[in-house]
Here is the input.
Amino acid sequence: MTAKLLHTLPSDLDQARLPRHVAVIMDGNGRWARQKGLPRIIGHRQGVDALKDLLRCCKDWGIKALTAYAFSTENWGRPTEEVDFLMILFERILRRELAEMCREGVRITFVGDLASLPTSLQAEIKESMAATVNNQSIHFTVAINYGSRHEIIKVCRQLAQAVQIGEIKLEQIDEALFQQHLYTSGEIDPDFLIRTSGEMRLSNFLLWQIAYTEIYFTPTLWPDFDRSEFHQALLDYQGRDRRFGKA
Ligand code: FPP
Here is the structure.
């Protein structure tokens, strides 16, 4: 069966045990392009197509949340032309895909330090979030200028300040309150995290949120991560015994 034909959930997957929230670290766009003798930016373009298809696939198969790591706080260290290209690419995608996201019932939100992004990108972000806020098919979260340590420190500062001004007592700080101050507040933690391209690290992504997440590494480069690769990943996920630290 070709990847394109898998519009309904493959029969060897159990609908009741699908992850409710999938997160992806989309790695390998540059290597994919290099292997084909193409510029890195072509790899990023192809990566967008892979992401679009994964989003549609999650929706088709009944997965209610997808979070994708599009740009980390460390990615500013890339060559200026690549960073500029990515910022323009993000902006274009949002403009180009908004109508379709609305049609397909996608609610899009963004996590990260958005205030430091180009103002034109911030405007597209704001518009796409406002336009899709009531959509219910799937919640698509895009991490842009995101770094988990930065997020955790931001929460610490907010809570410390709340204690300082007497808004809360020190003893009131617990996991639930901490969670409410994360960028991801309101969404359940990912059940399943996928990283492509053979790299086996977390790269400062959702460190708090993935405490009990199942992690899957695949050597496949992100632009080649299609529905059949996702199917394989989900079979692996369904073969795991999630005990959350219990016996
Ligand atoms: C990692 O590959 C990929 C990125 C840094 C960018 C990924 C972004 C997208 C696919 C666009 C998503 C956008 C939106 C707004 C929905 P790499 O460059 O690190 O590859 P390499 O490790 O092979 O060099």
Notes: Residues 34 and 40 are 7 Å apart (CA to CA). The chain has seven helices and six strands. Residues 26-31, 44, 47-48, 51, 70, 75, 90, 93, 142, 197 surround farnesyl diphosphate (CB under 6 Å).
